[in-house]
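Hey, sorry to bother you again with one of my protein questions. I've been staring at a protein lately and its backbone has me curious. I owe you a coffee for this, so here goes:
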Amino acid sequence: MTPKFHTLTISKIEELTPDAKAISFALNDDLRDAYAFKPGQYLTLRSTIGGKDVRRSYSVSSPLGCTDLTVGIRRVEDGVFSSFAANDLKVGDQLEVMTPDGRFVADIGGMKNALLIAAGSGITPMMSIAQSLLEGDDEAEVTLVYGNRETGTIMFREQLEFLKDRFMDRFTLIHILSREDQDVPILNGRIDADKIKALVNTGAIAPKAADGVFLCGPGEMIEVARESLEGMGVAHDKIHYELFTPADGQTPRKAPTKAQREAAEQGVKVEVVLDGTTRSFTLSDPEDTVLEAAHKHGLELPFSCKGGMCCTCRCKVAKGSAEMDVNYSLEPWEIEAGFTLACQTRPTSDELTLDFDES
């Protein structure tokens, strides 16, 4: 189902750390089905800030069966939306919130042993995954390795301690701090290859025995952890990761290729199929992606990050050809099947049809 925005009301705001808040949204009964989520998925929040349409994706931290939906937001330096959330939002305010999306999900009932490795605000989807697994399956065991600078920067610290006390036989919580000494030396420093190896050697974690390993946090941490785990023999398909990115992406925009430029200069007839309706427009600027060209023609296509990471704008090339600038989310089989990301796609043919309804 194509993600859609609805107006939700903020029901609660909780300060987690000096620079992070948990924001909860009330759900009316008629929207509960639309906002049914899988543990690990995210919501895209949308508001007009400084006269601009600004969107940011934040993972759901609530467990399955919750009354309200909660996301954790950490304020970042020069962060447009995070600063807006920290300074301007209050209980009772309304925001446009997209229905849940994302592939970073855990299978309740099929995941008996889960290893979660997070750093900083990467804890947000792990809260939902951990609690949903523990509450949804009496046989599930969860180990969470969580990296932060110091105790005062730990998001959801009270909730994590409560979860540990509640499921003391099935939930293992390991805090790694980089700027605050702990009594056990292995718990000091950053989550890197050496730290993961040390945790394995001491028996604190057993990634090869896990049904799934989930990684979330800074891109560098995820890449180092993924390579380290695969080097230890953890199967590639058992490792799941979530990348966060600002709306304008993490890499500079690539210049159009020769094929992209030639196609645009002749004028590309683009058709998009969305919710059973076909709309068309002409793309004539080689710098524009399909998403940007559609917006110029008043056509709203689904998107969240604009960085090639979230997969919200995933669609299938039904006719013509195109090239992506970057891709951090589509699997190889999807690319082979003709899927692309509208936020990164520029045509290389005189006609292009993209089907957003194709699964």
The chain has a mean pLDDT of 94. The radius of gyration is 21 Å.
